[in-house]
Amino acid sequence: MEIEGLGSVVAVNSELQFNRAVREGERLYYTTRLDSVSPEKITVLGTGYFVTFVMRYFSEIASGDQEVGELLFRVFKFKPSQVAAPGAAASAPAKPKRPAPGISNDTQFFWEGARSGQLRIQRCTACGTLRHPPGPVCSQCHSFEWEAVTASGRGTVYSFVVMHYPEVPPFEYPNVIALIELEEGTRLITQLVGTAPNDVRIGQKVQVEFHSYDEGMVLPQFRPVPNAN
Length: 229
Ligand code: ZN
Prior knowledge:
Elements (H helix, E strand, L loop, with lengths): L7 E11 L9 E10 L3 E2 L3 E14 L6 E15 L27 H8 L3 E6 L5 E2 L14 E6 L2 E10 L11 E8 L4 E5 L13 E8 L5 E7 L5
Antiparallel strand pairs: 1-5, 2-4, 3-4, 4-5, 6-7, 6-8, 9-10, 9-12, 10-11, 12-13
The structure holds zinc ion (ZN).
Zinc ion binds next to loops.
């Protein structure tokens, strides 16, 4: 069956079944079988085929591997509908919004800090250990008591990745995601702005800045310090 040239794909449904509970320490592997390809279908997204895969999960056991579960995974591979009719530019779809963070009682201080232009980091009041991402308990001494301190916003690139694919709106690609080591000593993951992917260097000095997005969301992002290093 010829399904080449269908550049778009969307997940349709996924059904995971376990035959039994799996235990920590078991070594699992899976096999993938192309289960079926539907006849050509026309949908609002475009024209293409529903493709179903079945993954079977096995546990490695000396006396004979045992099947522990199965995942049915169906996608729609399609050629997108032509949406831009001549003269229809005015009805272009709204730009997708940036995903909003989930905010809990443990993380509220961080996002409130961002809205007031502060990079706030959790510090255990029992032993002084900084931690990020925020959480309810200190990993060093297990104390639940904490306070928030305002970081300087200065740091260095500890590590980074450059996202090329898949391109997910509204992000721009290539997208540089960095692990920043703050000068206070803890690290956080952030988007690097104002730099080309090929210019990013481990150890490069960076500085926080705050940018507003949809509906009052403010995100801390980091920018290389010019002429540093
Ligand atoms: Zn502690």
